[in-house]
Amino acid sequence: MDGHMDGQIDSVTPTTLDEPVSETILRDLRSVYSKLRVVLAPSNVRATSYEDNEALKLLKDWDLWGPLLICLILSVLLSVDAGSHGALVFSAVFMLVWVGAAIVTLNAQLLGGSISFFQSVCVLGYCVFPLVISAFVLLLLHTFVNSIILDLVIVTLAFIWSTRASVVFIGQFISEERKTLAVYPVFFFYIFLSWMILI
Amino acid sequence: MATDGPETLDFVNIPQQTSSSTPLSLNPSTSNSSIPNPSSQTSLPPPSIFTSPTSTISTSSHPSLALLHLLSKSVPVLLYIFGTVFTSNFIFLFVLLILLLASDFWLTKNVTGRRLVGLRWWSTVNEDGSTQWIYESSDHQNPNKSDSSIFWTFLYLPFLVWSLFLVLGFVRLKFQWLPICLVSLSLSGANIYGYYKCSKEQKGKLDYLVKQGMEEGLRGAMGSGAFRGAVWDVFTTGNGKGYETVPGQQV
Question: Which of UniProt's keywords are assigned here (chain B) (predicted)?
């Protein structure tokens, strides 16, 4: 489920197939990890030097493993706290993340953006990661203190972080005038997720 | 309609080669015994995994891969059906199933397709952001027959099984299981679509099967007077009065 392939078209003796499975898994894990780091530090993307454009290049190599893991972790975290409705919350959050990402992507594409479907879903999925961190922090926090103000602060911080990261990436592909139009759905998507975390 | 004996009550009348008491069973020693033989001798269907499983796997050129392909598709199905017997933790099952389905997708796309049938599909992203899908087939013209039969059977079969589960889930109102079915359908559907586009040979085989099926069904149906009467009825007045004018039909 990767967007990058070796240039070799020889399909009978492929270069990456002969590597042991552990190497393949490690390669994918490293790719996921580096993307997460890029998401967590999005301020690099605005600079135009070559090293910082690496971040953009990295996100061109979309893969869906990261969003899948993030979505699963988020669903697990949210359902742990939900008590008797755990299973339903889990399925609902899972579907919500994927369907929401798909809708936001469609919107961006209809606005004439030059980003591919899977790239955008990938970016949106990865940018949910700060919200996942906040959900985890909240879970730990609730064992000590049950302050709604603190919850709000943490989730708001994470929400701003996520939205900013994804806007910076998607904004690269959409023209200036349409940028706010494209940003709104992203905004709502993350608001909805934050609300689910708060509840 | 008067009761005129067994012929008019049979909807389809396929000539029986064996006695009617032998059940359709897996008989490993003789392959193709339960499939009605097509009358043409030019190309028999390859030994099916269902009629001779052990010989099919052993004649494959990558037996362990074939078995892996088979297992990676059956295990999620079995887990879906029987998982609740072993654990009451729905979330654990869900996560396990999703991970199994994802790894099965990866396996089919990257490993078994390449090794068993020499086909490959992937996508690249162009500079302007559009996605380009690439379909590849190897130059070897003679894939191992057991390999391809195992591969294609277990590519289409899980899709059908999971569609059935989806429908059952709706009907039984077990909505929390539906995302799993949807995920599985989209993953296996993606694989089917990719490999289908790769393989022209497979298209030909499907056409052959569809034609065979239709011919078999029509041949059997034509032998029954009741069916002829019903078809005639459709083409005449359609109000039931067409019965009297059907040739050979005893009402």
Answer: Membrane, Transmembrane, Transmembrane helix
Beta bridge partner(s), residue A63:
A2
Residue A114 has its nearest CB partner, among B105, B123, B128, at: B128
**pLDDT digits over B173-191, tens only?**
888 888 889 989 999 998 8
Structure tokens at B17: 């080669």
A68: contact with B, CB 8 A cutoff = yes
Helices B63-86 and B90-107 pack at an angle, to 10 degrees, of 170
For chain B, give every domain's residue range: 63-250
Tens-digit pLDDT profile for residues A72-101: 888 888 877 766 777 777 888 888 888 888
Domain membership flag for residue A122? yes
Q: What's the number of domains chain A is made of? A: 1
CA of A194 vs chain B CAs: smallest distance (Å): 21
Amino acid symbol at A150: L
Name the minimum distance, in Å, from the CA of B130 to any CA of chain A.
5
Identify whether A9 is part of a domain.
Answer: no
Structural domain containing residue A159: 21-198
ipTM exceeding cut-off 0.90 for this assembly: no
